[in-house]
Amino acid sequence: MFSGQTKIPQLGLVDPKTGPLGVSPLISGGNPNLKPELAYSYYLGGVWTPGSKDSVHSPVDFLNGLSVYADYYNIEKRNNIAIVDPQFILNYESLFPGAIERSVGGAVQAINDTFQNIGRLETEGFDFGFTYNTKEFVWGKVDFEFNGNYIQRYVIQNLPDQPFIVRVGTYTLPVYKHSAQIFYSKALFGMDTLSTGVTWNYIDSEQDQTPKPSGKIHVIGNWNTFDYQVAYNFGKAEELKPTTPLAGYTKDGKKLLGEKAVSPGRDRRSSGWRRYLANTKLVFGMNNVFDAAPPFADQLEGYDTRTTNPFGRTFYVELERKF
N or C: which end of the chain has fewer CB within 10 A? Predict the structure, then answer.
């Protein structure tokens, strides 16, 4: 609503009244007259955890630690806030009163293409996945996790009484994507935890929005990236409760007569470096281990800005301390 407005030269537009345009100033940015979007959402899902009630006597006790889920969603958004294609505004000028500024002779001087409440957006799909955590063995334990999303339908209605445009499988909207990871962890020294693992990120292929002059449509390939992480969590040393009575008292709490008992001194070993590292977690990670470049998209940036990025291989270090 309150972002500034900019005027950008636009090429390649065609005015149905005057023919092809040269350079047309396109005004974009905020619109203080926007109305709120209104969404209706419907969800249906389920979770299956076999052997969770009685893992000892369950016939599927070997699946104890497994959790499977599936969710269906349907979302309808009205008064959808978006920017209209400037060519669409030229083709349907009567639907956008005042959007096109013309000279006395009818030539296009500027196109006001700010954010607007246009039509509706409808989408439905499925989220699904599972987690599986093994038992704690002498050698450690392994955790698996998988999360996927499948978009069954995604359509946009630019304006009321206009046909719906299918967007699923086209630029900015792959049909399918998932993230799968496997992590190994091991308890050390009775209080610390070492963990390491790999994550696989997958984004499905899609089609560019704009067909080529020959009528062919370029297919944006799928994108696979792998992330790696290793972490060490310093646990808190267990505080030993005194087994000897307090000075001057017996084990059952009765006061002693005569010479007072000597209370044991504090174990100073617990006040060393372990004391300062308790509840501290050190993490080293690497995203996009194989430096996979995003697949080419026939757009200004050269890649799908909604689902991919050009960062390449990146490293990070984290320090987390709980007090």
Answer: C
Query: What distance in Å separates the CA atoms of residue 272 and residue 171, rounded to the nearest whole number?
Result: 58
Output 128-131 pairs: Cβ under 8 A, ≥24 positions apart: 128/69, 128/70, 128/71, 129/68, 129/69, 129/178, 130/66, 130/67, 130/68, 130/69, 131/66, 131/67
Q: Render the burial of 137-162: b for 16+ CB within 10 Å, e for the rest.
A: eeeebebbbbebbebeebebbbbeee
CB 150 within 8 A of CB 126: yes
Distance between CA atoms of residues 155 and 39, nearest Å: 15
Decide: helix, strand or coil at residue 277: helix
Burial (0-12, 13-18, 19+ Cβ within 10 Å), 192: middle
Both tokens of residue 161?
């009484």
Contact predicate 289/226, CB 8 Å: yes
**Amino acid, single-letter form, for residue 153:** R
* Residue, of 318 and 215, whose pLDDT is higher: 318
Whole-angstrom distance, CA of residue 123 vs CA of residue 77: 9
Closest alpha carbon to 227 in 152, 289, 145, 303? 289
Q: Is 263 helix (H, G, I), strand (E, B) or coil?
A: coil
pLDDT category at 44 given cuts 50, 70, 90 is: very high
14, two tokens = 């065609």
Nearest alpha-carbon partner for 123 in 159, 91, 149, 93: 149
In percent, the amount of the chain with pLDDT more than 90 equals 41
Tens-place pLDDT, residues 239-279: 656 555 666 666 566 666 555 555 555 554 555 777 888 89
Beta bridge partners of 232: 194, 282
